[in-house]
Each structure stands twice: as C-alpha cells, then as structure tokens.
C-alpha cells in the first residue's frame, strides 16, 4: 500500500512539473511519469499477496464487512484493498493467580468465592484453550480480537463462583475437589463453544482456605494420626500379652506333663545318671550313700 501511495505522489509531481514548461524539470517529470506507474504496479502486485504466520489464521474484512472465508498459514492471494486480521489458533494459557508473577494480569488476580458455609476461599486457576479456526470470522464480527478480556476471563470467574456455592469449604479443599473441577469444566466448555473457543483443559492450581479452617483441619489430621498411633500401640501390647499367655500355657503344660508322666523308676534312673556324672568328674568330692533316694555330697572342689 505504501508503494501505491508513493507511485501516486510521483505521478502527480511529474504532472505538475511537466506543466511548468521548464526544460530543466522536463526530464524529471518524464522520469516520474515512468517511476509512478511502476511503483503503483509493484504496490498493487505485492498487496495481493498476504503471508499468514504458522499457528495463525487470517480473517478478511473490506470496508467493515467480514468475509467468512478463512486464510490459513502460508502465502495467500487476496484483494489488495482488504484488511487482514490474524488470530492465534495455538493453545493459549490464561492464568488467574494470587502470585504477582504467575498471573496473566499483574498483581493478585486470584478468584475469591463464598462457599455454602459462608467462608471465603481463594482459588488459583489456569485455563488452556484455543480459537477454532473456522470460527475466527464469527469472533471478529461478534467479539473482536480482545476475547481474553471479554470472554475467557469473565466466563471462567463466573463459572467458579456460581458452582462454588454448592460446596462447603473443607469439601471443596479435599473430597469434592475433582467433582467441582469437572462441573466448572462443563460450564466453561459450553460457554466457550458458543463463542468460537475450544476449552482444552482446566487446572485448579491452588485452593486457599481461611486460616481458622486450615488450623482446624491440621488439628483434625494430628488427632487422626495420634489415634492411629495409639491403635498401633494397643495392637502391639495385645500381641505381647498373647505371646506371654502362650508361653505361660506352655510352661504349665510342661510341668503338668512332668508331674503326671514320670514314674518312680524313671526318677531313680535319672538320679543314678546324675550321680555317675558327679563321680566321674575331675573335682574332689565325698559321696555318702544313705538309705534315702538321693546321695549326700560333702565337699568338693
């Protein structure tokens, strides 16, 4: 387009110089008569070719009217008068976070919601989405190029708030987290689809509870851990008591066997064996054999 404008200016200046009848400017005017049309032709030719970068699509508009035909990446031949608006169709990430360095918008951009039990919970959220190539003309016509601020951000925040009122803070933090994420995913997915966007993934990055609730949860967890520890101790004591009972029963059974199972002759035999071992030992001893069943041992080293 710039070449076309320069060519028109060159042609006009050449025309003005030729009317002066000055031999000095006549050559210049003739040159401009040649250069002007050449610039115009080059400008028109180059304006007919538009390059769309990889990962983008182009939407044509002429005097405010949007063309439904989409230009895909590469070199495209178009009317030199049309305006090309490009859209990024790759995966885009829109993050709302309490951290000043992580969010798409600077500062604390986390979502603050009220749960069913009236507590304020802070949620960090990341939305992964892309623009549908075929829907790019519709987006340009109905929304514009600032779909992040008009669609992605408000729809996501509203879906979070509308669905959070069905859950208690503790359930939202723990047992119902996946259910909550699936529910808001479906809500956002439908809203995006109606506006030419495709939701790829929804990530609840963090859920921050009020300090009082967090303290009570930690206290409950500690109590549960103490209870589990006590259960383990009791089980160990029961096992030890059972071991002692079995041991005592074994000793009792052994003594019962000895008291009922050994005869006098067997006891006499065992006594003779013991006396023999004492007599043959190297230690000096005196053995007095009496009328009793067992000898009396006097002295010995």
CATH topology of the domain at 91-209: Tetrahydropterin Synthase, Chain A
CATH level 1 class label of the domain at 91-209: Alpha Beta
Number of helices in the DSSP assignment: 8
**Rg from alpha-carbon coordinates:** 49 Å
Q: Would you identify the CATH architecture of the domain at 91-209?
A: 2-Layer Sandwich
User: What is the share of helical residues?
Assistant: 40-55%
- The separation of the N and C termini measures 128 Å
| Secondary-structure element string | HHEEEEEEEEHHHHEHHEE
Helix and strand content put the structural class at alpha+beta
Low-confidence stretches: none
Provide the CATH superfamily of the domain at 91-209: Band 7 domain
- Shape assignment: elongated
Proportion of residues in β-strands: 15-25%
Quick check: average pLDDT? 79
How many extended strands?
11
The major sheet is characterized as: 4 strands, antiparallel
Subcellular location: Membrane
Protein name: Prohibitin family protein
Membrane topology: Single-pass membrane protein
Domain Band: 47-221
Mind explaining what this structure looks like?
With 301 residues, the chain is α+β, with helices and mostly antiparallel strands. Among the domains are: 47 residues; 36 residues, no CATH class; 119 residues, Tetrahydropterin Synthase, Chain A (2-Layer Sandwich). Helix content is 52%, strand content 22%. Strands 6, 7, 8 and 9 form a 4-stranded antiparallel beta sheet that branches. The longest helix is centred in the C-terminal third of the chain and has 51 residues. The protein is elongated and about 160 Å long.
């Amino acid at each position: 387009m710039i070449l076309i404008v320069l060519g028109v200016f060159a042609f006009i200046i050449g025309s003005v110089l030729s009317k002066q009848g000055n031999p000095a400017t006549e050559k210049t005017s003739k040159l401009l008569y040649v250069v002007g049309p050449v610039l115009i032709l080059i400008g028109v030719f180059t304006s007919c070719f538009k390059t769309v970068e990889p990962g983008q699509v182009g939407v044509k508009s002429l005097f405010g009217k949007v063309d439904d035909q989409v230009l895909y990446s590469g070199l495209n031949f178009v009317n030199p008068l049309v305006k090309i608006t490009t859209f990024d169709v790759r995966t885009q990430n829109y993050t709302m976070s309490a951290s000043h360095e992580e969010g798409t918008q600077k500062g604390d951009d986390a979502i603050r919601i009220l749960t069913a039990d009236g507590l304020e919970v802070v949620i960090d959220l990341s939305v992964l989405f892309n623009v549908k190539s075929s829907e790019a003309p519709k987006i340009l016509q109905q929304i514009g190029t600032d779909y992040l601020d008009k669609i992605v951000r408000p729809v996501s925040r509203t879906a979070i708030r509308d669905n959070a009122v069905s859950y208690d803070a503790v359930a939202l933090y723990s047992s119902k987290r996946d259910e909550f994420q699936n529910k808001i995913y479906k809500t956002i997915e439908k809203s995006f689809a109606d506006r030419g966007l495709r939701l790829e993934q929804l990530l609840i990055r963090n859920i921050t509870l009020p300090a009082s609730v967090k303290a009570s949860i930690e206290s409950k967890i500690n109590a549960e851990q103490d209870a589990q520890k006590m259960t383990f101790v009791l089980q160990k004591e029961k096992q030890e008591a059972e071991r002692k009972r079995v041991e005592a029963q074994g000793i009792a059974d052994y003594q019962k066997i000895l008291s009922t199972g050994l005869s006098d002759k067997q006891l006499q035999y065992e006594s003779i064996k013991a006396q023999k071992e004492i007599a043959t030992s190297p230690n000096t001893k005196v053995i007095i054999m009496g009328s009793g069943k067992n000898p009396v041992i006097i002295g010995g080293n």
